[in-house]
Amino acid sequence: MARYFSQEKCSFVDLGYFHTPTQKECLDHQRIIGIGHSIGLSKLLSMYSHFDCLIGLNGFVNFLGGDPVLYKKRQTELKAIRSGFLNDAEKTLRNFYVRCDVPELIKYNDFSNLDLDLILSDLQWLQKEYKLPEIPTLILSSDDDIVVPRSITSDNFREKPWVKQASIIDTGHALGFRKPGEVYEKMMSFVNDRTA
Fold it and tell me: CA 175, 179, 180, 181 torsion: positive or negative?
């Protein structure tokens, strides 16, 4: 989606799953609109203390959910993923890309550089709940996301009146990759409504 923001000052964060992390930038005294995909939303919340608004793409603040039945099911799935990474990290990640309907991402990554320790650490990260500040927030989700299904989006954000939820159909867990133009339009409409 970077090309849609060519006229804006942007900082892109690579968490380093393939040993290419970016350094955290100092963004003090600037207007900050944080955009995080999936786990990236909670990672942004841990990196910076001030945002003017937030946008989550397939995002969450509690991956396992607060509902006990949902929590138990998701915890079982998370344990299976962790076991998969411990047994065969490359195969597990390749399967994850296929399940998320983005198999083309397989060819863009050098699996020999996979940082398994970081991945395992982030699987632990998924077991915690993260506090969402009470600032204007847009959560964009997809109707067919198997990683962050509607049940988790609803569980995480339904009782937060400062959060606007919207969805885009047929994008799975890769809505910014599958329909970047539509995602961009929804994001800019949200931001412009907040700054008008």
Answer: negative
Helices (H), strands (E): how many in the chain?
6, 4
What's the token pair of residue 79?
């344990």
| DSSP string for residues in 88-133 | HHHHHHHHHHHHTT-GGGGGGS-GGG--HHHHHHHHHHTTSB-PPP
Query: What local confidence, expressed as pLDDT, does residue 9 receive?
Result: 87
How many CB atoms neighbour CB 179 within 10 A? 18
In degrees, rounded to 5, the angle at the alpha carbon of residue 70 between the alpha carbons of residues 183 and 84 is 80
User: Is the per-residue pLDDT at 78 higher than 80?
Assistant: yes
- Token pair, residue 33, equals 């609109």
